[in-house]
Amino acid sequence: AVTWSSIPHPILSQFVTLLKEIAVTHVYHTKVIIERFFNGLLPIVDIYAPEENENSSEAVIIQPSITVEQQKLFTNLSREAIVDIISRLHTSQEAVVEIAFKKFPHYSGPTFKFTEYIKQLILIAESCPDIAQDLWMKIVDHVLQIDAIISKSVASNAKFDAGDSLFALEEENMTIDSPIRQREIDLTNKLDKTMIIILSRI
After folding, report:
1. What is the 3-state secondary structure (H, E, C) of the chain?
2. Where are the domains of the chain?
3. pLDDT tens-digit profile of 5-58?
4. pLDDT tens digits for 100-135?
C-alpha cells in the first residue's frame, strides 16, 4: 500500500486531488477512497506530546519515521478531502458516516489517537451539517461508554470489603489492584481530554 510519507511533498496535494476526482466521478471507488482518507485521520504520532527528556528513566519508544509537521499535513489533507467529496457527491454521506463509525479508535487504545480522531470528526461535522447529527451522536456515545466503564470500576472498588484483605499479602493486593487502578487513571485522563475538545467546539 502507498503511504502518505512515501509520496514526494511537492506532488502530495496533486495526488490527493486525483483521489478526490476519482471518488467523485467513479462511484465504484468512492467508498474505498473515503476509507483511505479516514485512515489519514488516525494519527500515528502524538502531535501534542512534550519533547522527550534525555535524562528520563522511562522506557524509550521508537517513533515511526514521520514528523509532527507531516502528521498535521496528512490529517488536514485527509479531512479537507472528505469534506470536499461530501460537498460534491451528496450520495457519499451514508458511506462517510458508516466509515467514520467503523474507524473509531477503541477506548483502550492511545489517548492521543482517540482524542485527535474525535477532534477531526467534530471539524467534519461543522463543515457538513447534513451528517453532523450522526457524527455527534457517535462521539457522545463513545464518551458515555468511557464514563460508564469508569463508573462501574469505581463502584466495584467501593464495594470491596477492606476486612477481606486483612489476611491477604500486601504484595498480592498491589499486583491485583494496580492494573485496574491504572486503567481508571488512563480512562479518566482520556475522558477529561475528550471533554476539553468537545466543550471547546460547542
Report:
1. CCCHHHCCHHHHHHHHHHHHHHHHHCHHHHHHHHHHHHHCCCCCCCCCCCCCCCCCCCCCCCCCCCCHHHHHHHHHHHHHHHHHHHHHCHHHHHHHHHHHHHCCCCCCCCHHHHHHHHHHHHHHHHHCHHHHHHHHHHHHHHHHHHHHHHHHHHHHHHCCCHHHHCCCCHHHHHHHHHHHHHHHHHHHHHHHHHHHHHHHCC
2. 4-49+65-200
3. 788 888 999 999 999 999 999 999 999 999 999 999 998 866 666 544 444 333
4. 999 999 888 889 999 999 999 999 999 999 999 999
